[in-house]
Amino acid sequence: MSGFLEKERTIAGPGFNRWLVPPAALAIHLCIGMAYGFSVFWLPLSKALGIKEAVKCGPDVGFWAELFTTSCDWKISTLTWMYTLFFVLLGSSAALWGGWLERVGPRKAGVVSAVCWCGGMLLSALGVVQHQFWMMIVGSGVIGGIGLGLGYISPVSTLIKWFPDRRGMATGMAIMGFGGGAMIGSPLAADLMKHFATPTDVGVAQTFVVMALVYFVFMMGGALTYRVPETGWKPAGWTPPPAQTNNAMITQRHVHVKKVWGIPQFWLVWMVLCMNVSAGIGVIGMASPMLQEVFGGSLIGVSQKFSELDKAQLAAIASVAAGFTALLSLFNIGGRFFWASLSDKLGRKLTYVVFFVLGGAMYFSVPGSAAAGNIVLFVAALCVILSMYGGGFATVPAYLADLFGTQMVGAIHGRLLTAWATAGILGPVIVTYMREYQLGLGIPREQVYNQTMYILVGMLVVGLVCNLLVRPVADKHFMSAEELAHEKQLAHEKVAAAEVGSSVAANDHAVSPVVVALAWLAVGLPMAWGVYRTLLSVAKFIH
């Protein structure tokens, strides 16, 4: 089995259809993308013992005691630490093991990701049964977080090498799946919990087990379908532009991952991603309460402000806001493919200029549309903002490949994801604490987000400046011909599959269009179901 997972065994033979690789990447990303949807478990888990009402812990039970207690239910604030760990471990594991991934190839990394992500969910299921939160922290938070990081970056360099003519579109397709994971997983989890729930059980443990098994099948299918192109492979009919006429921002050479920490362009792109994500993620976390507090009763056709609504009216506008967040998720997902594909035409640097200029204008317009009570402009602005938030994630791998070459772009992307981990803390803290601060000053709820929007505009200006400062990487940072040859040897690169005598790879000739169609159907049907369920929520909001 170990030999089957070696990178040499994944070199595609003549006639392999490159369009089989994107659905393989999607199969993994759609599964690990459920990390975004784990909040669907918080409320049931907070009543795991009490079932109908939470068994509250006493004042003497602090956070550390909650990790081991079996006599009272966990608080939602405690449960959300698992969500925090997801993205901290995603960034750190991608940074730590990105170089290893480049050398062993996407198949082995994908298998390890599947074992970690799904194994972590099974350990979490045991933690629910034993009512031991530390098991859930170790299972989904730590082990699952490592699976997240490896699964997230596993297809990046492979897709870029298969699609040198459409780098942005290729990575956009895969990373679109990560955004869509919760769109499928959240309603699936809700349905499963409803099915397994009994008068004595909230059904979370069984849901974890079923989802882990389903995800394992999809992730292993994706990992085993991965193939890497032989050295020097090019799409039929495509030739790289001559170096002298090529875009100066797209290099034909390669930087070693160990050098990127000392290259100014890496830190400029790091800031570009951090500022774009910080602004977007801050809005995602507060989108639902923002809509409710800004527009209040007008969401359900009454004139009262948010603070004047009764319990039934608050429940009604919360339902409307759920449809709003579903709408935002569609723009987040669609933006990943749209903007990344557009970057192949505009260039990566200009695409980020659009993100920061247009995004800044959208953030700046939010207080005005809120004050005017214009919900259409308010919603439109946030939809555009969320599309560019997703687009920033999907475009940055191609940006890195342009600047630093394709040899170690997956590992470099892993290093860059530390910007995401930083933004995951920075964005929500700014939005949350500014809201609390302004409420403390007695500012009406419908106005507490105004200053926050202007702060986020300032962050986008910082990102814009950093992006404008990006220049081609200096010659001294690139690998020499000897260093590149050594790195390719370490990465087990061969000119062709036949060199390793692998019947699995060498016989991997022309793939039937039927096989490619079935692969796309395997990921397309769950995505279509997720879109359908999301549109049902959006319809309530529009109505």
What are the key terms here?
543 residues; mainly alpha; 69% helix
Give a structural overview.
The protein has 543 residues and is mainly α. Helix content is 69%, strand content 0%. It folds into 2 domains: 1-34 and 88-235 and 481-537, Growth Hormone, Chain: A; 247-479, MFS general substrate transporter like domains (Growth Hormone, Chain: A), CATH 1.20.1250. The protein has 20 helices and no strands. Helix 9 (167-196) crosses helix 14 (375-404).
Brief summary:
The protein is built from 20 helices and no strands. By secondary structure, the protein is mostly helical. It folds into two domains: 239 residues, Growth Hormone, Chain: A, CATH 1.20.1250; 233 residues, MFS general substrate transporter like domains (Growth Hormone, Chain: A).
Radius of gyration: 24 Å
Relative helix content? 55-70%
Q: Uncertain runs with pLDDT below 50, 5 residues or more?
A: 501-507
Structural domain tally: 2
